[in-house]
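User: Can you help me understand a structure? I only have the sequence.
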Amino acid sequence: MSAKPLVLVALLAAGCAATPSPAPPPSFTATLTSPTDVVLSWPDDDAAGHRVEYANAPAGPWTTLQFLPPHATSYHHPDLIPETPFYYREQPFTGPVSAETTAGAPAATDATALHAVADGDAVTFTWADRSADEAGFLLEIRRPGEPGFSPIEVTDRDTTTCALSTLPGEQGSAYRLRALHYGPLSPVVHETTGKER
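Assistant: Let's start by predicting it. Here is the structure, written out as tokens:
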């Protein structure tokens, strides 16, 4: 008599153990929205921004598509080669803003400050490298009338200068600099484009 409850308990335990837990939703996805367009999506977070990369093979080589500003949660990769595999990954980045300026502003006395010299349609930026372990430097722009900053240029590590050509509507923009530090890479996702219509 006493053996039956033990067998029943064992069977119930085995049944419970066999029920799989639902998998969490993926944090980074690629969706084919037309035969040759892919939209990438990821959840919002507290990162300073995200780098999005693509490749045509799972192991690369990888090409950076874009550095995106904070709270951007999607990227549209349009007009792709038909019937071709595209692999994607994203990586958050952080890094404190070390300086902010506008082109033509008087040079700051702080040696770490960002200094911008305008010459016609070109702006040359200089700064001091006070970071020992950065992956590079990210220059960001806030165009007149825009509420926030967007990435505009990425340099190699240990760089202390870069020059950019301004586009129409960028005169009078504010600029800032941050030392880049990358977070973990996302899992690789992929889509294969369809036939061109």
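Now, to help you interpret it: The CA atoms of residues 83 and 193 lie 5 Å apart. Confidence is low (pLDDT under 50) at residues 6-17. Let me know which part you'd like to focus on.
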